[in-house]
């Protein structure tokens, strides 16, 4: 009997602008190959003015789902058919998933971070300090709170964004939270369990940049995490390692949010080691 041929791939991708340096395709397609899925993940530049047409196009072409990055994480919401719990609390979507013909917005950034964190410690009952109050901090703080952290301090340069995030955490996630204006080297309070850099400080090409923190407050046994994926070895990661902290780098979060995306789209739990290796290979080129 003749073999049944199928030339139709399932489609996924990332909508953003700028997007050409976004490495997500490398790790997601590595997972598809490893798990014998003849799927594609396309890196697609979409202008803000074209987002509505792009989402309609993805729906028309039967995309299984897509990631959203700058500047679409908030704007995409009005073009979707519904939201998952944490995306709804955060008011931001980084992953759309087709379910029963509907496109549902999820946020996997914070979930990916919590997955990484769980490899070192259970967030439940922990006291957490987070530098930054932008999209990454919002996703991480909400998810860490939903995972049971008992106290969250948001340290941020601009007061408006910091206090707005603290209010969201207090009102919508009912967690004890406070804002500290970031003014000079921050002293990590005694009793802190987890310290997270969720700012863009240290991102390529500003690889020598250093977050303003009194490194004497980094203690052995504390968990220190950085969201910067490129380069993964930031000054903060180096300082934290030198102090004996347990460290999570930005690749951990990137890989784990990708793992959750592939799970949402395909139902398969992909191998994170394969995905991390694919990213390490491109970053070391
Ligand atoms: P935003 O622009 O939304 O927020 C940036 C944050 O960094 C703000 O709090 C800003 O403070 C702070 N900041 C930036 N520069 C400085 C500075 N020089 N001094 C003090 N504070 C500063 O960005 P995102 O939250 O979306 O992204 C932040 C980082 O997270 C990016 O580098 C991104 O690559 C990374 N990221 C990593 C992911 C991963 O999977 N590893 C996933 C998502 C993001 P202010 O409010 O005062 O401006």
Relevant terms:
globular; 285 residues; 6-stranded mixed beta sheet; binds NADPH dihydro-nicotinamide-adenine-dinucleotide phosphate; single chain; 9 helices; Rossmann fold; 2 domains; alpha/beta
Largest sheet: 6 strands, mixed
Strand content: 15-25%
Tell me, rounded to a whole number, the average pLDDT.
Answer: 95
The structural class is alpha/beta
Q: How much helicity do the residues have?
A: 25-40%
The small molecules bound here are:
NADPH dihydro-nicotinamide-adenine-dinucleotide phosphate
CATH superfamily of the largest domain: NAD(P)-binding Rossmann-like Domain
CATH topology type of the largest domain: Rossmann fold
Name of the CATH class of the largest domain: Alpha Beta
> Would you count the extended β strands for me?
12
The number of helical runs is 9
Distance between the termini: 46 Å
Could you say which overall geometry the principal axes of the C-alpha atoms support? Answer: globular
């Amino acid at each position: 009997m003749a073999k049944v041929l199928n030339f139709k791939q399932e489609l996924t991708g990332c909508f953003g602008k700028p997007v050409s340096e976004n490495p997500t395709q490398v790790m997601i397609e590595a997972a598809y190959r490893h798990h014998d899925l003849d799927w594609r993940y396309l890196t697609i530049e979409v202008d803000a003015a074209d987002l509505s047409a792009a989402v309609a196009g993805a729906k028309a072409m039967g995309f299984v789902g897509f990631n959203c990055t700058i500047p679409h994480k908030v704007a995409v919401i009005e073009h979707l058919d519904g939201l998952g719990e944490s995306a709804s609390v955060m008011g931001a979507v980084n992953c759309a998933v087709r379910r029963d013909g509907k496109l549902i917005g999820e946020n996997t950034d914070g979930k990916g971070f919590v997955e990484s964190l769980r490899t070192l410690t259970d967030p439940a009952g922990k006291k957490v300090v987070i530098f930054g109050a932008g999209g990454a901090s919002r996703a991480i703080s909400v998810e860490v709170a939903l995972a049971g952290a008992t106290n969250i301090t948001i340290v941020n340069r601009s007061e408006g964004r910091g206090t707005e995030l603290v209010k969201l955490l207090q009102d919508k996630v009912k967690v004890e939270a406070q804002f500290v204006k970031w003014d000079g080297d921050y002293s990590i309070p005694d009793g802190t369990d987890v310290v997270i850099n969720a700012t863009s400080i240290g991102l390529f090409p500003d690889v020598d940049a250093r977050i303003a923190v009194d490194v004497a407050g980094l203690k052995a046994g504390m968990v220190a995490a950085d969201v910067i994926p490129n380069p993964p070895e930031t000054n903060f990661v180096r300082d934290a390692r030198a102090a004996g902290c347990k460290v999570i780098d930005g690749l951990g979060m990137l890989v784990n949010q990708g793992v959750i995306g592939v799970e949402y789209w395909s139902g398969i739990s992909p191998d994170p080691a394969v995905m991390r290796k694919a990213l390490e290979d491109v970053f070391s080129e």
